[in-house]
Design brief:
- By secondary structure, this protein is mainly alpha-helical.
- It has one domain.
- The chain has helices spanning 17-41, 45-51, 66-77, 80-91, 95-113, 132-140; strands spanning 119-120, 123-127, 130-131.
- The chain has a three-stranded antiparallel β-sheet.
- α1 packs antiparallel against α5 (95-113) and α4 (80-91) packs antiparallel against α5.
- The chain is globular and about 40 Å long.
- The model is unreliable at 1-12 and 135-141 (pLDDT under 50).
Length: 141
């Protein structure tokens, strides 16, 4: 049925329904695993508090426009960066790098659990997990 805007409708390019729930649950699982690993790493909880929101500074890219903003946001919110950092930090026995990578991974996981996905160039609300404003409106109905 075209024009149907409920949560079960098929929308090209966006995840909804059970897959959306699974992706958000997966994000929470990754975040909790990263926090657990961080707690066992001996990293400073003060450092955790200081850096947990650092990836969100990438949103400043939106000052230059939605395409630049999306690219900056995605660079800071894809797992590739922190996984590479974690691998290098483990290889070089760099505890600060390990701690930073785990904090970064935790941030991304919590964002995904909250429904903040990777961005498309159309605007901040257009994510791989769906359009942010639409999900909020549909949850109320």
């Amino acid at each position: 049925m075209e024009g149907n805007n409920n949560m079960t409708s098929k929308q090209p390019g966006f995840v909804n329904g059970a897959p959306l729930f699974l992706l958000r649950a997966e994000g929470l699982a990754v975040a909790l695993a990263a926090v657990a690993a961080f707690s066992r790493s001996g990293g400073s909880w003060r450092l955790f508090a200081i850096l947990i929101l650092a990836p969100d500074l990438s949103m400043l890219g939106y000052i230059a426009g939605p395409r630049t903003g999306a690219a900056a946001y995605n660079a800071a919110h894809a797992y590739l960066g922190p996984v590479i950092l974690l691998a290098a930090a483990v290889a070089f026995a760099a505890p600060a790098g390990i701690a930073t990578a785990l904090i970064w991974i935790a941030h991304i996981g919590f964002d995904r659990a909250l429904g903040f996905g990777l961005k498309y160039g159309e605007g901040f609300a257009f994510t791989h997990l769906g359009r942010a404003g639409r999900r909020a409106r549909e949850a109320k109905s």
